[in-house]
Amino acid sequence: MNSHKLRTAVKYLLVYAILIFFAGIMLFPFLFMLTTSFKEPKDTFNYPPRLLPRTGLTTMLDGEEVPLYDLEGDEGRKAYALVESNIRIGVFASIADPEQTWELPPIEAKPKGGFTNQEKTIFNGEEMLVYLITVDGREIEVVQVGQTARGRFVDPDNPQNEIMANVRLSQPMEQLTARPQNYQDVVALQGMDRSLTNTILVTLGVVLGTLTTSVLGGYAFARLRFPGRDNLFVLYLGTMMIPFVVLVTPMYQLMVYIGWVDNMVALIVPWIFSAYGTFLMRQFFLTIPKEIEEAAVMDGASRLQILWRIFVPASTPALATLTTFTFLYAWNSFFWPLVIINTGNTANHVLTLSLNVLRGRASDSPNLILAGAAIAILPPMLIFIFGQRFFVESATSSGVKG
């Protein structure tokens, strides 16, 4: 009995571990986008990339803010302040012992024989200039075999304590931080607040319009009898087979004729008629017993009253499903707004157009681009999270009967 419980527990543990692993893989790009939107510009170019945003620690030295680095000095490992970078350093090798080298500023190496008549020697098969450096009070003949760059670091507690180190190979001192100003910068740079408002208005218009036309059309095809009803319904469903690229040109010409080019109404009206929405509502209305409708007719209810008081309340799952799909499509629509709204007319831009422009204007600031992407992604995600149970139940219970 105990062994059976143990096997069951192990099985469930493995199942949950696998699900959590794949869930983490799917969520990681979103988490990386969100955390990067809070990073400083230079933090986005760190290699290897880091998930959490960090900022370098600084200190005030002689009235100037300088960065801190974790370095090994005469007093052990501690924080040093970088006060000067890109100091040219020469690498000199002893002529007598080529394995022995020193790094020091070139100005501290004196040309042997003077600048005008400097001596030369053969070193590793090459003719090279000879220099003199002072080490422990004695002069040593050397040749310059290379050069590098160093930074000058000082102890903030004791500025007289200085060390030289390679800045690129030194470890800066950092702390976890967040930079919410990125979102303010994006709004100021690209007017994302106006684009967000436009997107909300367009999405609400498309959703409400689609629900209205789909409910009316679905009820007509499900309950009203008129000549050619079924053939008309099949023809209407056939429009779903037409690729959108075929419709772009005639739709644009129609918008030009009406005068809706570069107008937000062109983003709403053409999309409030949905063959899919009509089909979805019709299929759900067919599942409602006719006896309920006949009883309402006997009580003197009109067609509109029957639709509003009986069919609409009973079709909440189907309406929720249609609302979800329509909302996501309208919110994320990009190609049609790109065609119908001019790039320079930022007052009528939706979020997808603003992000497209921001991609070029802030190409050197990935943190700003991802902050704009977060502004576009978070609202529909929050709506789905808060209504997740209702959306999932509606998606699984609607459009599958009849």
Summary keywords:
single chain, 402 residues, alpha+beta, MetI-like fold, 3 domains, 9-stranded antiparallel sheet, two-stranded antiparallel ribbon, 13 helices, 13 strands, elongated, disordered C terminus
Furnish the topology, listing elements before pairings:
Elements: H1 2-36, E1 54-56, E2 58-61, E3 64-73, E4 76-94, E5 101-104, E6 110-111, E7 120-123, E8 126-129, E9 131-135, E10 138-155, E11 158-165, E12 171-172, E13 174-176, H2 181-190, H3 192-223, H4 229-238, H5 244-258, H6 275-285, H7 290-298, H8 303-314, H9 316-332, H10 335-340, H11 351-361, H12 366-386, H13 388-397
Antiparallel strand pairs: 1-13, 2-3, 3-4, 3-12, 4-5, 4-10, 6-9, 7-8, 9-10, 10-11
**How is the biggest beta sheet arranged?**
9 strands, antiparallel
Secondary structure tally, helices:
13
Gyration radius, rounded: 36 Å
Into how many domains do the coordinates divide?
3
Low-pLDDT residue intervals, each spanning 5 or more residues:
398-402
